[in-house]
Amino acid sequence: MIEQQLTVYNTLHRKKERFVPIHPGHAGMYVCGPTVYGDAHLGHARPAITFDILFRYLIHLGYKVRYVRNITDVGHLENDADSGEDKISKKARLEELEPMEVVQTYLNRYHTSMNALNILPPSIEPHASGHIIEQIQFIQQIMDHGFAYESNGSVYFDVEKYNRKYHYGKLSGRNIEDMLNATRQLDGQEEKRNGVDFALWKKASPEHIMRWPSPWSEGFPGWHLECSVMGTKYLGKEFDIHGGGMDLMFPHHECEIAQSVAALGKETVHYWMHNNMITINGQKMGKSLGNFITLDELFSGSHKLLTQAYSPMTIRFFILQAHYRSTLDFGNEALQASEKGLQRIDDALKKSDKIQPSETSGNAFVKEFRSKCYEAMNDDLNTPVVISHLFEAARIINTVASGNEKISSGDLNELKETFKLFFYDILGMKSDSSASGANNEAYGKAVDLLLNVRQEAKQRKDWVTSDYIRNQLTSIGFEIKDTKDGFEWKLNQ
Ligand code: ZN
Fold first, then answer.
1. Centre of ligand 1 from the C-alpha of residue 359, in Å
2. 186: CA distance to ligand 1 center in Å?
3. How many whole angstroms from 408 Cα to the centroid of ligand 1?
4. Distance 56 CA to ligand 1 centre (A)
5. Does 175 score more than 90 pLDDT?
6. How far is the CA of 406 from the centre of ligand 1 (A)?
7. At a CB cut-off of 8 Å and minimum separation 6, what does 233 contact?
8. Cα 272 to averaged position of ligand 1 atoms, centre (Å)
9. How far is the C-alpha of 490 from the C-alpha of 143, rounded, in Å?
10. Sign of dihedral through CA atoms 144, 216, 155, 219?
């Protein structure tokens, strides 16, 4: 049963609200995923971790959760604009690849990084390019309701007309008059009735390689459309939660609301949630500023701004030490502090297994530990407060372990159980050490042993056995190389 009452900050209403799902016991959530044309970076890690926490917590509370996180593989143009080159086809052109090769390459890498950060895979990961028919139908519905028009083979959303009946700008708080005044004349805009209008379908120029037939032209869908379409396809015309980075609030999410209301006649999303941005040494992250750090560079330490490598769990812990709605500044000192803090928690967890309980307990915190952690999570996923309680628990473990305080076996169990529940299951942390050290050594020895057996088989010309071992290891993902002294192997991730 769901006993805890979760409260989340609804960006649409600008206040914290109790989470009441549309269907009791079920929760539907949609989060804008990456446009897969480059390596995953810090900007990808924060929304993925924020909504992983929400996903895990909803599951923990007993909800049956359907979590949809999309993959943008078409229609996202340079500078998030309505004209210009598609980010994916540009990469494909520069690297002489098929656009879908670009998508697959970076999607695989994205998954590897997300996996390293211990982010649970979503329930559904739909691709925009796999939903072109649905997107064409959705545009048709918007046109049938009079909120879109065709112009030279492209279709645009009529923002001003929509705003006369509904409210464009309700999520971002922007005023349409200001937007009308501010819109500059850009290339391609002569097709639009108004500068604030945005593309639902774009006619492909002759050199544009990603194109599909439609009633209006051979072309491709506008970037904002896919989320209206795939969200409602998999979660229903009304669903509970829509998340994403704050940078997507305008125009992406504002346009999404307008599209859904124009097509379906009513609001789709009950709770809009946005994580704040990451800065690096106080500056916005950007390729031109030279402070653009990919997750691989963080994990390996191979970036000029980094003084060392940081483990994926240090990055995760660091991100969780700030509330998701606060800005978060990355810097070596702050990361090293997180690394030390994480070490303290790891050490305390190890120590807690060796503590001998006493007859009595001397600390009142243990009795409140669990309820305090729930209270923090229920308060709009306040992970930094949960972590402060974990540090207090670690302090108590250290005091007891050094003989300066007593703990009963009941209290000790409660302390350990609560600690592990929040640290591992809800915050999604895992021990970095468990994946290395003794386990890794034993696993390396086991692979060596198998390959030695294969060597012996080869020497006695038992090709069946030798091929069997090689093929089986290769199918698991091992790469095996015969050398003049024997063999080399590695595991391809
Ligand atoms: Zn989106």
1. 56
2. 23
3. 51
4. 21
5. no
6. 53
7. 126, 131, 134
8. 12
9. 55
10. positive
**Total Cβ atoms within 10 A of residue 132:** 18
Q: β-strand 64-69 against 26-31: which pairing, if any?
A: parallel
Give 226 Cα–ligand 1 centroid separation in angstroms: 7
**Alpha-carbon span 286 to 200, nearest angstrom:** 28
Q: Which residues of 152-260 form beta strands (DSSP E)?
A: 154-157, 198-203, 219-221, 239-245
Ligand 1 centroid to Cα of residue 254, in Å, is 10
- Residue 230 alpha carbon to ligand 1 centre in Å: 9
Identity of the residue numbered 147:
F
Q: How far apart are CA 214 and CA 12, in angstroms?
A: 34
Question: Which residues make Cβ contacts (< 8 Å) with residue 445, sequence separation at least 6?
Answer: none
Contacts of 161 (CB under 8 A, 6+ apart): 146, 147
According to DSSP, the residues that pair with 63 across neighbouring strands are: none
Count of positions (residues) in the chain: 493
**Mean pLDDT, to the nearest integer, of 163-190?**
81
pLDDT band at 186 (very low <50, low <70, confident <90, very high): low
Measure the CA–CA gap between 50 and 277, rounded to whole angstroms.
12
Q: What's the confidence (pLDDT) of residue 437?
A: 42
Q: Please tell me the distance between residue 253's alpha carbon and the centre of ligand 1 in angstroms.
A: 7
**What one-letter code names the amino acid at 307?**
T
Q: Taking the CB of residue 147, how many other CB atoms lie within 10 A of it?
A: 21
Q: What one-character-per-residue DSSP string does 427-476 give? A: S----GGGGSHHHHHHHHHHHHHHHHHHHHHHHTT-HHHHHHHHHHHHHH
Centroid of ligand 1 to alpha carbon of 313 (angstroms)? 27
Please list the residues that pair with 219 across neighbouring strands.
203, 212
Q: How far apart are CA 149 and CA 256, in angstroms?
A: 17
Residue 115 Cα to ligand 1 midpoint, Å, equals: 22
Burial class, 299, CB count within 10 angstroms (exposed 0-12 / middle 13-18 / buried 19+) = middle
C-alpha span between 376 and 368 (Å, rounded) = 12
Residue that is written with structure tokens 């994916």 in the block: 88
| Ligand 1 center from residue 410 Cα (angstroms) | 48
DSSP 373-428: HHHHHHBT--HHHHHHHHHHHHHHHHHHHTTSS--BHHHHHHHHHHHHIIIIIIS-
d(CA 76, CA 92): 14
8 Å CB contact between 106 and 161: no
Query: Cβ(454)–Cβ(465) under 8 Å?
Result: yes
Pairing label, strands 239-245, 269-275: parallel
Determine if the pTM surpasses 0.90. Answer: no
Q: What is the pLDDT of residue 2?
A: 57
Place of tokens 């229609």: 75
